[in-house]
Amino acid sequence: MQAHRFRAYTIIAFFIVIIAPGALLARTPTFRPNTKNLNIMTVSHSTQSPEMSECELVKKIYRRRIPKKAVIAIEGRNYCYRAGLDSSIKNAPHIYLLSRGYAKRKRITGPGKDEHFIRSGGCVIHTRDRIAQNVVHLSDTTVAVTFDYKDGYVNFGQKRDLSCLRYVYDAIRALNPSAQIIIVSECLGAKVALELAAQHPITNTTIVLESPFFQATDLFDAMAHNYIGWSASRSILYWGTRFLCHYDYRQDDLPSRLKNIPKDTPIFACHRNGDPLLLDTYFQTHITSLSSCVSNVTSYRFNDIETRHSSSFRWPGCQRAANTFYKKHGLPHNESMVMEPQVLSESFASYLASAYDGIAQMIVPFLA
To answer: What is the pLDDT of residues 153-194, one digit of tens each?
Structure first.
């Protein structure tokens, strides 16, 4: 904890001394998303032999040498990554759209590092993980589209990030107007997915939210509570971030726009109790608000201190809950992962956790 606190103090001091003054003078460069600068790739099942590992593919993307086609192995099956939007999208009845979270690293730092946090190419690892975790189910007729956000300009899921997801969504819709699009999102990417649903016309679309953010201020409160432990730290983070030229605090009001999401949109949201970057009370408050606006919201909460933020689908219970949700709405799913009685028991435990977190931690093992 002391190490986390020292790191947090260092980040705050660095921000105040260097980042904030520079942001005041910075000018937001014009950005127009396209297939190339978003590293858009189409992922499909393949019968060909693997050509490279996912890490090798990440390195090629990172070095701006995106191959036209690359076959990699995931959990014993082969998948083909194709640059851009492949023609297979036109006839696919179901299309997954991957919306990853914030990637903090600009460059590959060495072997053994988590390439998921690489800004350019991290989309490959995010897609690989969701396939391995039974959240994305590809077949001869079902494909996925993945891409990288432009993480160098932090705007907490606002205009710039939204323009990226909107560009990819509209490009898919242009190729296949009738397909069911399943947006699989995490963390900051989950906030962007909700912003898209609230601000942009969507049809025949399902949204999966993993460890979702709803407001930047939620993150500030969680960091102040779990890492810094100083009552004034939340105000410093909040006021300091207002200087970022890519972030508009006046638009940080997604909860007020949830009512604009189409009422019949199926939404699944999962959250680990005790997530250090998203307080349990905030998650429950926002999900309750979302449920009052949208009729098909399913939420799942669980207790596991080993699961980190944006890794909820590593937990088997989350995979079962997601596949039960998929089956309920007629979407591709893994039948062996559908265990409705178990999900109902865990959902009841999740309800107890929202009201009595301490009691729930003792009851969950008996309900599992």
So the answer is: 677 788 889 999 999 999 999 999 999 999 999 999 999 999
Kindly state whether residue 266 falls inside one of the protein's structural domains.
yes
Radius of gyration of the chain (CA): 20
Are the beta carbons of 339 and 320 closer than 8 angstroms?
yes
Could you tell me if residue 197 is inside a domain?
yes
| Location of structure tokens 């790191």 | 7
Is the predicted pLDDT of residue 338 greater than 70, yes or no? yes
CA-to-CA distance for 259 and 299, rounded, in angstroms?
18
Query: Quick one: which of 13, 15, 32, 9 has its CA closest to 241?
Result: 15
> What are the beta bridge partners of residue 270?
210, 300
203 lies in a domain?
yes
Helices 357-367/340-355 angle, 10° precision:
160
**Candidate from 114-118, 170-174, 244-248 with smallest mean pLDDT:** 114-118
Total tally of structural domains belonging to the chain: 1
Side chain identity at 205, as an amino acid letter?
Answer: T
- In this structure, is the dihedral angle defined by the CA atoms of residues 290, 292, 295 and 300, taken in order, positive or negative? positive
Q: What is the DSSP string of 16-39?
A: IIIIHHHHHH--PPP----TTTTT
- Distance, in Å, from the CA atom of 81 to the CA atom of 200, rounded to the nearest integer, reads 28
* Phi, psi for residue 114 in degrees, rounded to 5: -80, 105
Q: With CA atoms as reference, report the closest residue to 62 among 130, 126, 148, 186.
A: 148
Q: What is the model's pTM?
A: 0.83
The domain that holds 197 is classified in CATH as 3.40.50.1820
Please state, in angstroms and rounded to a whole number, the distance separating the CA atoms of residues 205 and 224. Answer: 35
pLDDT band, very low/low/confident/very high, at 348 (cuts 50, 70, 90):
very low
Q: Indicate whether 16 pLDDT > 60.
A: no
CA distance linking residue 90 with residue 105, whole number of Å:
34
pLDDT tens for residues 273-312? 988 888 899 999 999 999 999 999 999 999 987 777 778 8
